[in-house]
């Protein structure tokens, strides 16, 4: 409660009661696709569209980037979302017997 001065006006003196609660932002993880010599381009493009909601054009750009550079980013997500996407990619790759690898790393 703020002190009132003799005239009953707020003196501006008081006890600070606000606590600064540190906001905990979730850690973010990059999801990366790794290149290999066997997974068909079309499969990688389809995965990027279905799992990462990329447009055809974005998916092609990322696929070519991975093909040319060995690794590329599909997106950045909170831990559990990143984990689910990695699992979806790896399950699809296994199902179609492609060696495609997808990993996550703390940003
Ligand atoms: N290098 C593969 C090929 O030539 C294509 C490919 C692209 C594979 C991206 C994996 O993450 C990958 N068929």
TrEMBL record:
The organism's place on the tree of life at top rank: Bacteria
Annotated segments matching region Disordered: 1-23
One Pfam family linked to the record: ClpS
GO biological process terms, semicolon-separated: proteolysis
Listed SUPFAM superfamilies: ClpS-like (SSF54736)
Domain Adaptor protein ClpS core: 25-102
A GO MF label: peptidase activity
Signal peptide: none
InterPro entries assigned: ClpS, ClpS_core, Ribosomal_bL12_C/ClpS-like
Record key words, sorted: Hydrolase, Protease
Entries under Gene3D superfamilies matching the protein: 3.30.1390.10
Subunit note: Binds to the N-terminal domain of the chaperone ClpA.
Similarity comment: family membership: Belongs to the ClpS family.
Entry function: Involved in the modulation of the specificity of the ClpAP-mediated ATP-dependent protein degradation.
Protein name: ATP-dependent Clp protease adapter protein ClpS
The species this protein was found in: Maritalea mediterranea
């Amino acid at each position: 409660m703020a002190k009132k001065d003799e005239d009953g006006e707020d003196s501006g003196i008081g006890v600070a009661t606000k606590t600064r609660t540190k906001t905990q932002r979730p850690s973010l993880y990059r999801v990366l696709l790794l290149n290999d010599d066997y997974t068909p381009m079309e499969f990688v493009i389809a995965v990027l569209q279905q799992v990462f909601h990329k447009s055809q054009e974005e998916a092609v750009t990322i696929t070519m980037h991975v093909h040319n550079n060995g690794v590329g980013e599909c997106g950045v997500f909170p831990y559990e979302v990143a984990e689910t996407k990695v699992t979806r990619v790896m399950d699809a790759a296994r199902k179609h017997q492609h060696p495609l690898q997808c990993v996550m790393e703390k940003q």
